């Protein structure tokens, strides 16, 4: 066989093998990410999700080398923010929106870490409007088993056993957490609402998956958050005459909680504080944390307190929102964190 004929046969064989293997993914073609797909952009980035539009606008305005991609109607902005490659998106309010948009981001971008940044209600009465909370874990207490009364449910035999339904109650010291009781003029009434753990599956826990009450924030990101000292304002940039009374502070640690309900009930707020020692409540971060855990992506959440959830005095709440202080303080922490993160990673 001639050399030319052999070369022709080898070329044909290689072409056939390439066709059988299918197209080379974009990440492979760029030589950037051989072990994870990224449908639209394969640059290593921190993903930033905001539920509140005004704060996302602040972050996007300061992003350099911006590029916008619209995916299923959602606008993702890539670029460099405080020296860190980022992708920023507005999720909209609610557990389901946060989950959907976060997964969409992870599918289309090479997101190595996630930040949820926005506004929340206070649960711990020791905190003040304007404080920025950075919980070290997040839970979803409105994932519940709704029983007929506050006796421990036993649908599968033993008290507290709901396993035959594919569920698991949240426990402390081996006992289900106490169900909420509704205050009435005649005295407390059983609600039958028992907090459940949430089922989550990822490659590490497959095939059986796992149940979780808490989703821990990333320890490395928490370490950096504890090192920053952002300037938090008392008066808002839109109207400097609107100010909160106490100087806002950055507070790292404790449990944050999220749910599908906008909480304006002071008694249920006290239940969350007494039962879970919750610091803050909102409607998105625990959902992002669930998606982050399912995809094995580290995350952290920054939340600026807008009010004491279910509180009666809305005077300072108006100052907080109407002055632009809400988004200004939340974004100040996000920007300070990104600056510190760049220094931290450069020094490794």
UniProtKB/TrEMBL annotation:
GO molecular function: catalytic activity
Domain Nucleoside phosphorylase: 45-322
Keyword Glycoprotein carried by entry: no
Gene3D superfamilies: Nucleoside phosphorylase domain
Keywords noted in UniProt: Signal
InterPro entries from the UniProt entry: Nucleoside_phosphorylase_d (IPR000845), Nucleoside_phosphorylase_sf (IPR035994)
GO biological-process terms attached to the record: nucleoside metabolic process
Signal peptide as annotated in the record: 1-21
CDD domains reported in the protein's UniProt record: MTAN
PANTHER family in UniProt: PHOSPHORYLASE SUPERFAMILY PROTEIN, PURINE NUCLEOSIDE PHOSPHORYLASE
Protein name: Menaquinone via futalosine step 2
Source lineage: Bacteria, Pseudomonadati, Pseudomonadota, Betaproteobacteria, Burkholderiales
Gene: mtnN
